[in-house]
Amino acid sequence: MMKIATLAALAGSATAFAPVQQGRASTAVLGFENELGVIAPTGFFDPLGLSKVCFGFRMASLEAKRGDGLLEFGNISKEKFDEYRTAELKHGRAAMLAVLGYIAPETYRFGFDIAPGVSTYDIPNGVAAIDYIPALGWAQIIFLIGAVDYWGVLGDFSFGKPDLGDKEDERKLQELQHGRLAMLAFLELLRHDSQNFVSPGFDGYDKMITGLPFMYGN
Prior knowledge:
- By secondary structure, the chain is mostly helical.
- The protein contains five helices and four strands.
- The longest helix is centred in the last third of the chain and has 31 residues, at 168-198.
- The protein starts with a helix and ends in a 20-residue tail after the last helix.
């Protein structure tokens, strides 16, 4: 759990996109450095260059005058950037649910049957559940996730929406940050759980969420 705490500190400054290092390969001017989600200390963070697009090669004679690299880069369109931002939000929301999906079953089960004769009480938590869930259970999970992603069947809930007023951008930034933190937290939970699945008790603990002992009544 110390790793999660460390990742959480890093996630506070993690952002979706940033410029590739400016050098001989790029002469483009930043186009998204003022987008929501660009915060200190990292600023505009895009190590994979997703915000850039290559237009082609320049003539060698022009290269001699400009002293740049051969590739001509520019910014992606605003529509493509918005598409990436939507994907980031969806992944962040899925990760937040995934983290809850790891934590909640440690202390509570709903008790319904995911398949005839198979209760949630019989399913272990985490990676170990893969071998216990029958084909019918997997079919339900895949269909529901696919339906939500493809058709958006959950819709836009009006119930419970607060009146944000002038804090809308602040709350959107908080959602981005929470999603980024959740993505890092889920990766660490998955790593720890997978390692414990291969080598049970490798960390010397008999519970998975070792940093929150109060969950188990300790």
